[in-house]
Amino acid sequence: MRDLDALSVDLEAALIRELVTEYTWANRVRFGTRLKPAVIALADATTRHGRWVGPARTIELARTLVLERPWPEVIGVLEHEMAHQFVDEVLGVRDESAHGETFRRVCADRGIDARAAGPAVPTTEPAEIDRVLDRIRKLLALAGSPNQHEAEIAMRKAHELMLRHNIEAARAQADREFEIRHLGDPHKRRSRVESDIMILLTESFFVKVIRLPVYLPRTGTRGSVFEISGTRPNIEMAAHVYAFLLATADRLWQANRSDKRVRSGRDRLSYQSGVVRGFREKLGAERVELRGTGLVWRGDAKLDDFYRARHPRVTTRRTSIRLDGAHAAGREAGRSVVLHKPVESSGSGGPTRLLR
């Protein structure tokens, strides 16, 4: 194990205070303040992320977890151990296995991951979903064609296939598992371009999105990330679209700096936001056309329930958009964007393959 560059006394004290604050919030919101406050401690364990120690009334979190893993995962493990505390001290259930029926029910009711603490474990996809994903991958590969007409047709077919598959799954009320993924560098300030992409993902790619504040233990500062929720195939697609649009908006900005509607470098975010808006309008127009074939997306009640359990208190904020010439130029460019499969890299440092 590599040197973890232990925190200073002040940073470790600040970290513990932050964890206590998170514990207090979860106790109030998820457990109705029924938990008697426990001691939060850091441990040098290397074989587990965390544990509830009943006799000592302590929740231990591994230093490797809090220093090396993203903050949302740290909080996920903390809440997982709080669920163990609830089963032990509030419900008094001690004749079941650690992750038995009562524990799983407590977690499900509160939007807590009942599986082994740590990152979400991918589930095994049924063969039918595998076939659908394979067809979508092939269509996205065709959408990379230099022939604009062929590329547009391939993207539209991929869009239709994704829509049809999700409508059928929601109508059948199939027993699906939902997962989460976090996007964005917490050390960087979130941009309006990213926010625009998140709106597009919620509208057209069958995921729920929320912006989460995160704590950065090594610096004692705060940042934020986006959390997307959905089925694993939809999360994979949404993560690809996020990376694709960020790269495409930047590429188009660099290619069109000479546009007379772009006055200076300060117009970059306005232009890139316009690119995302233009692509969003393009997808919206395709969705309207597909309604004529009977494909109407009415939402996914099960995903809504999963999202509300994870985030019982959500604050919505509205932001204004400056509709200037640079934004209009970006929208024009965005309407010609064709979503396609990313180029696969054969070596390090090149483009990464986001769809597998």
How is the topology of this model organized?
Blueprint (H helix, E strand, L loop, with lengths): L8 H21 L9 E5 L6 E4 L4 E5 H6 L2 H20 L10 H10 L16 H16 L5 H25 L6 E5 L8 H13 L3 E9 L4 E10 L1 H24 L12 H24 L9 H10 L14 H10 L22
Parallel strand pairs: 1-3
Antiparallel strand pairs: 2-3, 4-6, 5-6
Helix pairs in contact: 1-3, 3-4, 5-6, 7-8, 7-9, 8-9, 9-11
- The total beta strand count reads 6
Q: Alpha-carbon distance between the termini? A: 30 Å
Number of domains: 2
Shape: globular
Helix content: 40-55%
- Global Rg: 23 Å
Report on the architecture of this protein.
The protein has 356 residues and is mainly alpha-helical. It folds into 2 domains: 9-110, Metalloproteases ("zincins"), catalytic domain (Zincin-like); 127-334, no CATH class. The protein has helices at residues 9-29, 63-68, 71-90, 101-110, 127-142, 148-172, 192-204, 232-255, 268-291, 301-310, 325-334; strands at residues 39-43, 50-53, 58-62, 179-183, 208-216, 221-230. Helix 7 (192-204) runs parallel beside helix 9 (268-291) and helix 9 crosses helix 11. 33% of the residues are buried.
Task: Provide a quick synopsis of the model.
The chain is mainly alpha-helical and 356 residues long. The protein has 11 helices and 6 strands. A 3-stranded mixed beta sheet has the order 1-3-2. Strands 4-6-5 form a 3-stranded antiparallel beta sheet, with helices on both faces.
